[in-house]
Write a structure and sequence with these properties.
The chain is built from one helix and no strands.
Length: 17
């Protein structure tokens, strides 16, 4: 479950960029 949260944060960062 933690992996999903981490992935989501990275994804958001990529999109935010």
């Amino acid at each position: 479950m933690t992996c999903i949260l981490l992935l989501g944060t990275v994804y958001k960062l990529f999109i935010g960029n």
